[in-house]
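Quarterly update from the structural biology core.
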Amino acid sequence: MRLAFAVLLAATGGGAVAETGATGDAAQGRAIFHDGAGLVPIVAGRALPRMEGRMPCAGCHGSDGQGGTEGGAGRAPAIRWSVLSNPPAGGVAYDAAALGKAIREGIAADGRTLQMPHFDVSDSQVGDIRAYLGMLDQIETQGISGESIALILPAPQSAAQAAGAAISAFNAEGGSYGRRVIAGQEGFVDLGSLLGDLRGRLSAAEEDQARSASEVSGWQALPRDDPKAPLQLRRGDARAFVGPAPPSLNWALANGADLEAARIHALTALILQELRLSGRNLGRSAFLERIGKLDLAPALAIYENDAGP
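Predicted structure, tokenized:
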């Protein structure tokens, strides 16, 4: 998300977003929206500076601005600027003044009382928030067209080759709702970053797989000092190891790639499957949240006897 935001800022010449008419600093608006930076709540008519930063906009409205719930309360509305400035028929559009009144007093553009906290914000801060809200649609859908979804590939050549092979296989199966996955510097997500995060979790997932094999089939995991080495198993005289899923291991064996490349291939395939499961109307924040909860077990398999690398 931060990388995509930086790319969009550069493309628009800094903090202002000319195409949406915003004049504030979108970078400052992002800090307010996601972190509550400088956002001081008003309680019983009094500003409470000690509570600054504890109630960011994203906490209720979602990191993608699409709305959400907070503490079991009613659903907070979507607040992307494309929504606020283009209400349904009969609605009243927001401008910067109306946005400020909603934040400070909890009064909607149409005069309704909003069930939301009030905040002590300056006109400058309102402008910053307005500028960032105007960028959310672009940030959430960057890299997506009707025909393709661009991903930023990992930098190491071996990882890029493994990821590229998984992408080719995914596209051969039809891609995601008719869209092909392609490489691009202004991508929907940074695949390299996602792979780094998932790779950090993979050793624990391999150990979970070994424990399951122990409970079900009596395999015992052997100690390993190097987390990049295969996790080997023993059952009497028999041997096995926990490795990448068969399509990924087969790709590595056929192309002279090592075990680590096979793992990257398997994790990429898992990310791409989640991309397909996310549906046609993709949003970056929701997708990253799904990846954060991803079960890595489907990227792994147990190979017995002579099936090792």
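The radius of gyration is 24 Å.
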